Amino acid sequence: MPVSGEPAQPQRLAITDHRVLVLTSTVILLVVGLTLGHQALPDLRLEASQGSDGIRGLTAPTSLRSIELDTVIELERTFQETDFDWPPGNTIPALAVKRFPKGIDELDVNARKALFFRTLVPLIVAENSQLRYKRQQLLDIFARGNLHADDPAYALATEIATRYRVEGDLNDADVRAALLRRVDEIPASLALAQAANESGWGTSRFVREANNIFGVWTWEEDAGLVPEQRPEGETYLIRVFPDLQSSVRNYLLTLNIGAAYRQLRSIRADMRRNGNELNGLRLAEGLASYSERGEDYVEEVRSMIRTNQLHELDELTFGNH
Questions:
Q1: Please, are residues 15 and 204 in contact by the beta-carbon 8 Å criterion?
Q2: Is 164:156 a contact under the CB 8 Å cutoff?
Q3: H or E stretch including 224?
Q4: Stated pTM of the model
Q5: Hey, how many other C-beta atoms are within 10 angstroms of the C-beta on 267?
Q6: What is the pLDDT of residue 60?
Q7: What is the pLDDT of residues 37-81, one digit of tens each?
Q8: d(C-alpha 167, C-alpha 84), whole Å
């Protein structure tokens, strides 16, 4: 189970609360440090042409239209009105569904999958576009050569480095490489497969009551809800998110900064270095620490990608719907 923002060890809580995991002392020690170090960092909504930073030519990420509907019938009608079928074409509408509506658990399997994927894929594409934008900003800044403390671009790079927990001199090549390894995308195929696995296709209590798609833990009493079958004496909570997009954003940050996912980031960096497109099936190799089931979990995620043909969705963009 990943901890909010920064995962600790390969611990994961089942989506229906029917399996209970006992935290090891190692996890507790790590989480104490993470809880102290992880405060609510500001979301960096970096817009194009930020004045004195000197960066030009970047296209700001698409803004999503937020919607909150009570029933699956209303949500399905909205998807139909925007010609958002499943599987989609090359483009998708810029919709941000705030929460899953009532009744998703009553749909048949195929209808539930189609509604689940259409709800989440715009959120994943939007958050990845933010990452792509930040990454390109960093590449442009680093291409200038050495930075100076009074340079607004240096301040911007420092702000990003702080969010992604990279310390050191931003003029150092190794520090720059470390930051670029963290500020990068997670393919929609991988995110959707994990979301389906962790949330029971949007039907789990964690999703219904906390908008928590990926089963994230927290130890902040005012930021979580108590798992129904939490062992006596344990204090962990299920992180509550204000909306589904916040849960997606936290998931991407977790994979990008968590010590448990260095392998995933290393595989991704190799893909970038070799000029290859990011591949969710390959990147799943770096998720062995996401679950106590290790390699079995990796294969389960890969199977969900293949079975649902999610690898075909990694190049989606927003269109005029």
A1: yes
A2: no
A3: strand 224-225
A4: 0.82
A5: 17
A6: 73
A7: 333 333 333 333 333 333 444 667 778 999 999 999 999 999 999
A8: 43
